[in-house]
Write a structure and sequence with these properties.
Blueprint (H helix, E strand, L loop, with lengths): L2 E5 L18 E2 L2 E2 H11 L3 E6 L4 H10 L5 E4 L4 H9 L8 E6 L7 H14 L1 E7 L4 E4 L5 E5 L5 E3 L3 E4 H9 L8 H7 L5 E4 L10 H10 L1 E17 L4 E2 L2 E2 L4 E3 L7 H14 L4 H4 L12 H14 L3 E10 L9 H12 L6 E6 L5 H4 L3 E14 L1 H9 L1
Parallel strand pairs: 1-4, 1-6, 4-5, 7-12, 17-18
Antiparallel strand pairs: 2-3, 6-11, 7-10, 7-11, 8-9, 13-16, 13-19, 14-15, 17-19
Bound molecules: magnesium ion.
Length: 389
C-alpha cells in the first residue's frame, strides 16, 4: 500500500485570494485539494492531507462533500514540518510515500503510477521535465548577465516518491529550508532518480495558473430525461414543482406526489447515470412518507455535485388539463432554482394540456416530462477512462 501526503499549507500570497487557501480554489468546479485526493484515490493510495495549522475545517467539509476519505493532519509553519506531521500517520516503514503539492490539481493516476514504479526500482523518484526554453541569468535591473547552459537542466514536479523509512531518516537529519523532498533526500545522501513528468501537472501560483488549469480540462456535457405521472384524487394537496396549487383534488403518492419534481429528479439522476428516484428514495421507506419532494430533489442534487457534476439547466413540462398552472409558473421556477442552487434563468417550467385526450385530458392524473443538462470538467485521462468503462 502506498501513501499520498497531500500538502495544502502555504499562504498563496501570489494568488491574491487570501484568506482562502489556494488549494481550496475550484479548478473545473472542484477544489484543487479534492482533485488531488481523487487522483491518488484512483491510483489506490491511502490519503493523508496536511492542512494549514488550525485550518482543517474547510478541508474536512470539501472532502466530505465529494465523498473522499482522508486523514487530516495540521501542518507546521514550514513545508518540512508539514510533511513531517503527515509522515507520522504512515505506520508502515516499508511503504512508499508520495508527497504531493495540493496546488497541483491536474496530477493523473498515470503519473502517480510512473513515480511509484520508478521509486520501486531506484529507491527515490521525482517527476521532471527537460527545460526547453533558453535560460538567462539577469540582475534586478533586468539586464542579462549570462546565458545558462540548459543541456542537463530539469524542472521538477510532485508527487515525489520515497520509502517512509528513508524519508524519516532524512528528516531526522534536518529538513529546514528544503523546497522539496528531493533536495532533502539528496542532502541526506539518498539516491533520487528523475522520471518523466507531465506538462499538464502545473502548480497554481498566480490567477493566470488557475485560468490555465481550467483550460487544460475537458468540458463534457451530459443530458438526462425523466418522466412521471400521478393520479388526481380527492382529499390530497396538489403540489407541483414545490408549489401548492389550490384545487379540489390532489396527487396520490407516498411523498407529496409532486410529479413534476419527480420527473426532474429523474432527469438529473439520469444525466449523471446515478440510477433513479425510486432507487434513491424507495416508497417503502417510512422516512419519505408525505415528504416534500423539494427535499428529495435537493438531496439528489447534492449527490450529483459530489460525483463532480455541475448543473447547467433544466426544463420541465407539466401535462395537466385542469387547473390552469400559468399563474404559478414564476414561483415554481424560483423554488426549483433555489433548491438546485442555480439561477432562475436556467430553470424552465412549462404547462400544457392534451386537448382532453388521455388520462391527463380526462382529469384522472397529471404527468410531467423533464430534461436536465450537467457539465463536468475532466483531465484527458479521466475522460478517456469514463469513455472506456
Ligand atoms: Mg412519482
Amino acid at each position: 500500500m502506498e501513501y499520498a501526503i497531500i500538502v495544502c499549507g502555504g499562504s498563496g500570497t501570489r494568488m491574491g485570494a487570501l484568506p482562502v487557501n489556494k488549494t481550496l480554489l475550484p479548478v473545473g468546479g472542484i477544489p484543487s485539494a479534492v482533485r488531488c485526493a481523487l487522483a491518488f484515490r484512483r491510483a489506490g493510495c491511502r490519503l493523508v492531507l496536511v492542512t494549514p495549522p488550525g485550518g482543517e475545517k474547510p478541508f474536512e467539509e470539501a472532502l466530505r462533500k465529494y465523498g473522499v476519505d482522508a486523514l487530516l493532519v495540521p501542518g507546521g509553519r514550514e513545508r518540512s514540518e508539514s510533511v513531517k506531521n503527515g509522515l507520522r500517520c504512515v505506520e508502515d516503514e516499508d511503504a512508499l510515500v508520495l508527497v504531493h503539492d495540493g496546488a497541483r490539481p491536474l496530477v493523473t493516476s498515470a503519473l502517480i503510477q510512473r513515480c511509484i514504479s520508478c521509486a520501486r526500482e531506484h529507491l527515490g523518484a521525482v517527476p521532471a521535465l527537460k527545460v526547453s526554453d533558453t535560460l538567462k541569468r539577469a540582475g534586478a535591473d533586468g539586464r542579462v548577465r549570462a546565458t545558462v547552459d540548459r543541456t542537463d537542466m530539469y524542472r521538477v514536479q510532485t508527487p515525489q516518491c520515497f520509502y517512509a523509512r528513508d524519508l524519516r531518516k532524512a528528516y531526522d537529519l534536518g529538513g529546514e529550508g528544503c523546497t522539496d523532498e528531493a533536495s532533502l533526500m539528496e542532502n541526506a545522501g539518498f539516491p533520487v532518480t528523475l522520471c518523466p513528468g507531465d506538462s499538464a501537472n502545473i502548480k497554481l501560483t498566480t490567477p493566470e495558473d488557475l485560468a490555465m488549469a481550467d483550460r487544460l480540462l475537458r468540458r463534457v456535457t451530459r443530458t438526462g430525461f425523466g418522466l412521471d405521472a400521478h393520479q388526481l384524487v380527492e382529499g390530497r394537496r396538489l403540489v407541483l414543482c414545490g408549489v401548492e396549487v389550490p384545487y379540489d383534488k390532489g396527487l396520490l403518492g407516498h411523498s407529496d406526489a409532486d410529479a413534476a419534481l419527480h420527473a426532474l429528479t429523474d432527469a438529473l439522476l439520469g444525466a449523471a447515470a446515478l440510477g433513479d428516484i425510486g432507487q434513491m428514495f424507495p416508497d417503502t421507506d417510512e422516512r419519505y412518507a408525505g415528504i416534500s419532494s423539494l427535499l428529495l430533489l435537493g438531496w439528489a442534487a447534492e449527490r450529483i455535485r459530489a460525483a463532480g457534476f455541475g448543473i447547467v439547466n433544466c426544463d420541465v413540462t407539466i401535462v395537466c388539463q385542469k387547473p390552469k398552472l400559468a399563474p404559478f409558473i414564476p414561483e415554481m421556477r424560483a423554488r426549483v432554482a433555489g433548491c438546485l442552487g442555480i439561477g432562475v434563468s436556467r430553470v424552465s417550467v412549462k404547462a400544457t394540456t392534451t386537448e382532453h385526450m388521455g388520462y391527463e385530458g380526462r382529469g384522472e392524473g397529471v404527468s410531467a416530462h423533464a430534461t436536465a443538462t450537467l457539465e463536468e470538467y475532466l483531465t484527458c485521462e479521466e475522460d478517456e477512462e469514463n469513455a472506456a468503462e
